[in-house]
Records
---
Amino acid sequence: MRNLRLIARLDIKGPNLIKGIHLEGLRVIGVPNVYALKYYAQGVDELIYMDCVASLYGRNHLGEIVRAAAQDIFVPMTVGGGIRSIADATEILRCGADKVAINTAAVANPQLITDIARRFGSQCMVLSIEAKQIGPDRWEVYTANGRERTGLDVIEWVKRGVRMGAGEILLTSIDREGTRKGFDTALVKAVTSEINVPVIASGGMGKPEDLVKVAREGDVDAVAMADILHYNRSDLVKIRATAQSAGLAVRPYEIA
């Protein structure tokens, strides 16, 4: 049985860690790497850094934050937002990222998925998908941090992305993001049943038990959590214990 990975997601605007609801109404939480270090000390398996306004400005601004984190944090880091080319990916990987997550640029230029997978390996190429439900068992792909419709069907897009080289999917439900209502397990299951690469469920985790539900019903490989950690409504120690009590395989970790 593979381990379920526990991932802290850090959405960033400028120098600040932020949090919104449905990817809107962004509220400043604090200094990103203060929170990253706290989650690392609690045994987080991975971190996701997402530049939420990168699409507006056409570039990723997280280089210095990621470089500083890499000095003290030794778990895989995925960085997304504003990565539009091989050169952009190269730069953020040199700063210390292990993987790049691409959404808007991949929709605009799907060949970028293949180009990054060929240059750095598919394990480095995370296809980030922002999904919004538009009907029964139907979801549409959005870009630009949930602001722009694409007309793309999520299931068709994720299958195409995997065929083109994506090695992992970061699947964010816009409908659930920041709501604390739990993950959109129907969406997650619809995606995991169609592909054979790891899927990270993101958006909606309101309590530790939500992780158990999406792992069992959605068959995910990892969960990304933000609100529940940033607002201290739970911590990774309790979340890990909940997963273990439910019989889910997670990486053993003891706080020194």
Note: The chain has one domain: 5-246.
---
Amino acid sequence: MSITPSFQPVVPKLKRYTMETLLSRGVRLDGRKLDEVRSIEIVPGYIERAEGSALVKLGQTVVLAGIKTDIVAPFPDTPNEGVLVVHAEFVPLASPTFEPGPPDENAIELARVIDRSLREIKAVALDKLVLEPGKHVWRVFVDIYVLNHDGNLFDASMLAAMAALLSARLPTAVKTENGYQVDRSKYTMILPVNHRVVTVTIAKVAGKLIVDPTYEEEQVADTRMVVAVSEDGRIAGIQKTGMGDLDYREVLTAVSIALNKASVYHRVLEDIVLPYRAKLEEEMKAETPGEEQQPPPPPPKEHEEPVEATEVVDEAVQEADESGNE
């Protein structure tokens, strides 16, 4: 049963007026520019007993993600693929508006946005997680816990999920008479990942589009749009939240901003998480000399010729201008 928080803080009119006045001058309440992202910290491997984990701090927003695996039967329509499950939980201590109990619709929305962003672009190589086609495959749980809410849970949670997946290892699958058992005393391979994906959240406040909104900015925002972008510049998903609207030009502008600012998040993953993943691979090779890990999977065929999204946006803006002139 869903529980919708009934208490929402009220932003004083004076603060709202100050915020909107500063935005009209291109400045935000915390001193950032409209398209500036807050400081980012990532700690991969934060939970020792998890298959993979990461703690992410985006400004004052803190999110923890963990990876757990087991062996199950595949879905009937995908007998040659592993299973990916994303779950998000808003811990009550993270915000006065979070209530104890089952995940509410906001937590469900967060999990679904991250799930779709990972699934549609085949970020995790599920075809490499098959033990016996149609019978036994690995199931990968991505558990996301919001520990402190100061705005922009989508970007912080996506970063945490991606960092946890990149730092995850698969334990040993032991064949038995009844199927397989998981031996967590020994890891056999790094979780295969095809693509890295991040999300960029853009809020509309007083007619201005701002990146990485804080909690206060989200309270006065008309609407938000979340754009998932892969490391090679492809759009992996788009989600609009809130009751307000965005016109066609604002959507194109928001997408263009997201494609540009996604590099900030990807750079942090490259600088902090990829070296950690490489270190794990070296440690596993040292522990299992003579055993070769599975090679990285090739990229999906349907994405062999990626479309330059920035060019698509520019063309769409040009078409909008032409139609407006008519």
Note: Residues 13-287 form a domain with the Ribosomal Protein S5; domain 2 fold (CATH 3.30.230.70).
---
Amino acid sequence: MRIRGKLLALPGLLWLALFFALPLIFMLIISFYQRGVYGQLIAEFTMENYIRFFEPLYLRILFDTLVVSVATTLGTLLLAYPLAYYITRLPRAQQMIWLILIMIPFWINFLIRSYAWVIILRSQGVVNTTLINLGIIDVPLALLYNWGSVMLGMIYTLLPFMVLPLYVSLEKLDVRKLEAAHDLGAKPWQAFWHITLPLTKPGILIGSVLVFVSSLGMFVVPDIMGGAKSMLLGNVIQNQFLSARDWPFGAAISIIMMIMSALLIALYYKAMKWEERLEGTK
């Protein structure tokens, strides 16, 4: 039985080895290479690419990336939790309709969706034209190419990644516990704080990890909706590979981001486990 199970897992393991592990090893190796004058790879060991990452310019971009990622995670959580809760309270047939509506953006190309926001928010776009025609403003508002538009695009793009795990957790919630709390005199916010929120922590954890890690590597939204003023680490990596032709430095940043993501996720899991143990001792 065990041998049959391993054989079933073999295609997936081979796929991961070929298209995940091998490229990762390749990136790790070239991160220690040197860049030639014309961008060619020189197989001479150096730590210069990793040392260069700690220059003030890149530390500032790292700080901006972390701030945007945390803000995106919190923003999606605040929007997704009430939405997922509302969906789980609907009849089953209506729940399916809402879930399909949430998934519809994935049916449309990501670039098209991002450029649609440019059409909506630009100076002659839908929002500014409507406000001017209504006499609310005289000159167009600067709605595009700033951090606000980047946040809007990031939250819009990653919201489904938070809604779906939360929906699964809330859908499994035992409503009898809420009814018991209500019968014992608990107020709605007390029932939410002491019952609903703790029981849906797995969904919050999975959704937060999915959104945060995706935000760290995002470069399309900052590029299209943030312009030259908004630079995240994903944009730096893209520029190193496509424009500057400095693959060793781009690979070094990628490896640093991957290690950083793994450490943050491990710390997050540790904190959640520690909190669960703390609650168990009460």
Note: Residues 52-280 form a domain with the MetI-like fold fold (CATH 1.10.3720.10).
